[in-house]
Design goal:
14% strand; two-stranded antiparallel sheet; 121 residues; three-stranded antiparallel beta sheet
Length: 121
């Protein structure tokens, strides 16, 4: 369970950082929400408008461009996302993969002919 929780947190963070959020206008840039399925990071990208829309926005974690992106975090949705992705990992690892291996083993047992019976005289 602890491993599933850790994987859930890592996957939640990775999805949030890799996500591209579509924006339709300058007004959408004031509050761009990141995270899936529950948004848990909100960033203000209004200081850096696009020339044309629609366009995609990515999460900016560092100020290497010199532009400020005020960021807010909501931890309850983060915990929800982590629980969902951890649950998916647990279900695949503890239920799905063993079921696949059981299925493969049972097919092998059914297709292998039994050894011939020999009698000694």
């Amino acid at each position: 369970m602890l491993g599933s929780a850790a994987v859930g947190c890592v996957v939640t963070w990775w999805i949030t950082v890799a996500q591209r959020v579509p924006v339709q206008s300058d007004a959408d840039l004031a509050s761009v929400r990141f995270g899936f399925p529950f948004p848990w990071v909100t960033q203000d990208h209004s200081s850096n408008p696009f020339i044309e829309y629609p366009n995609d926005v990515v999460l900016r974690l560092t100020g290497r461009t010199g532009i400020s992106y005020p960021t807010g975090y909501e931890w309850l949705p983060f915990v929800g996302d982590a629980a969902i992705w951890g649950g998916v990992f647990w279900a695949v690892g503890m239920v799905g993969i063993p079921a696949i291996f059981r299925s493969i083993r049972s097919k092998r047992r059914g297709s292998v002919p039994p050894p011939p019976l020999t009698t000694t005289s």
